[in-house]
Amino acid sequence: MAVKDQSGAVRPVDSGLTGRVKEFALSQLGADLVGIANIERFENAPLRMSPQGILPSARSVVVMALHHPDACIEMGGIEHPQVIGPYRVQYWMNTRLDEISYRMGLFLEKEGYAAVPIVSSNIWRYKGYKDLTAHFAPDISHIYAAVTAGLADLGYSGLAITPEYGARQRYVTVITDAPLQPTPLLEPGSVCDMCKLCVKHCLSKALSKEVDGLDELWIEGKKYTKASKNLWRCAWGEHFDLDLDLPIPDHVNEEVILEQVRIHGFRGGEMGSCLRYCLPKERRYFDSSYTNAPRRKRNTPDELASRRGLEEQVRSLAYRWAADFVMVTPQADLEAIGIRPTEYLPDGQTAVTVGLHFRTPEGADPAAPARQYLLEMAAYDIARALERQGYSAVCDTAFPEKSFQTTFTGVKEGWSVQTATVITAAPLEPTSRELPQVSVPAPTPEETRAQLKRLLHEWGADLASVVPAERLAALHPQLAALFDGVEVLVARDRSPRMREYDPEVHTEVTRTRAPEDHLKGARSVIVVGLRLPRASVERTALPPAEAVGPYAFAQYESVKLLRNIGYRAIRWLEDRGYRATMSFDLCGTGSVVANPRGEQPDAFCNRFTAVAAGLGHLGKGGFVITPEFGPNVRFVAIVTDAPIAADPIPAEYLQPVDCGDCRRCLDACHTCAFQDEATVEVNGVAERFYRMDRNRCDWAKRYSLVGEEGVKYVGWEMNVPLPEKIDAEALAEGLRQQPPIPKHRPCNFETCVLACPYSR
Known about the structure:
Strand order of the largest sheet: 3-4-10-5
Radius of gyration: 27 Å
Oligomer: single chain
Shape: globular
Number of domains: 3
Structural class: alpha+beta
């Protein structure tokens, strides 16, 4: 099939692939909306924040959206925009959008096309970059992308508003060279009726003060407009958490913001009134007895529909996100334990609680973020499903979960319960408060390996292999001789956000570990790998866009998804009577890299674990090179006392990587961190690599003191000369030079890995 672009030229498209992309987005990823733009629609975009700037071969842009449950908007911000209440669901939505973007990128890659998934939020060029002068500039504007993909009109406020939900959705974007069929554009002004409720309710006056006319967005001859507002004023509460009740000066700029932060500190995040009050004319109505925001017209509950069918849908969604149980509690039972559902939802009459029943951790709990994410996603999907049937539902409330959990029965000794709750108007059938007891017969070691590996790949793993714990225990003395006893400087910032870095530096002494150090009685280790999108790696920091955001996004999203996969495997093993835990650096020979989502495991974590499992070999730089994906893989190790049959090491894996005379990884290091060559024997193979000075390496990638390691590409002017000796005083002095606002969102990579020919 073919379509004509604006110039009349015919461009071929793959309608079958287009259909598969949309089906994957809607059915598999759970998007509420999906649209596609052809690359020509971005011809007027600034090159440094355009899809063609990031991926010059791009032909299409896929935009997907998730809807804010209406009750979370209508109940959020009632008291004040900075008392956001259930609008906190936006944070859940951002993490879900990240997964949707990443998985769509991998889907397109499997279809044979390059794809660069873009993060949902929180990666931006704070004050522009080179010729890009825009403030708070993301790699790509999801708002503009939603308009170019035919999903939205551009509202006066600058939000992308849809006929279905108004401003009540958030977007994510994937750039690809796949020839997809574009979605027709909406007509400018077809959704926004210029009601100006956004202007009336904006406490920072960003839509009425310091407005310089209208900005124009031209797409295929159509002119979309929005208010040309002062982004610093808009960011008063939105980005900087300043109290909206403070007197706001007539002119707001960076200096004003920083001064106000120093004087007053923070009040909290803002629920944008421009979003809260924005609905299309055909969809909005007002009910002051329910909320002070407009309400969205939606389906009327079908009383003839099978309630049991709705209840089964609720359970299905919960179990999809690995929940162990679903409990429905009616209003009378809630009030009997001191919980009034109408405090959270005016027509609330039922609580739907999803939960996980897990072994109480004895120490650090690496699975905690995964449990939290899986429960949040279950609650979010249930709220949306109930809303689609016409029932209001709210999640992420201040619901007293702990009080509610005390009414459970059947909690096993040594186990804990974690829950998330949805309050809804749906009259669902009550359930028992007894926790279900799960006990599955343990399969044979061979069956365990086969079943678990099949599930790991279903859950999204690219690589998986089982290695006996004793193999890693036997490797431990070699690693200890090379890595134990090194003094490493560790710093933390004692100052609040947006204030000058106040470093506290201490010294830690490295100690390598074996499986038994993670779990007493360890018998098996399952090593799971997830790839980074190849185009995200290949295009890192390259012109025209010189974007580093897609790589930083891949760093943390791969870890998040691996953690979720690891937790599912742990629960599968626990149901069969075994114990298990997981680690992103089982042997303890890696470090971390600075990232907008907090420090992430670097490319050196779990390297020896992956090599012992036969998933790859070490290159000169000391990172794993896999046959399938080169170094562009991150690993999690699941340690268990289950007797799982080990995977045999294929003959082709018994040959080390031949780096030859190549020294690109070593020569690319900005801090000359690589030192002497070392050898470790693994599976009978001599793995040769160069050890590094951790403090020199961390100077760049962990502490962002070398701009070329990533942060210069988001606008940091940061290059602190490396001292002859890196001690606590030198590191502290370097950290004090970090910029006070951008320091909260560092984007770094590992230059040595990107320099490897196997990487890109």
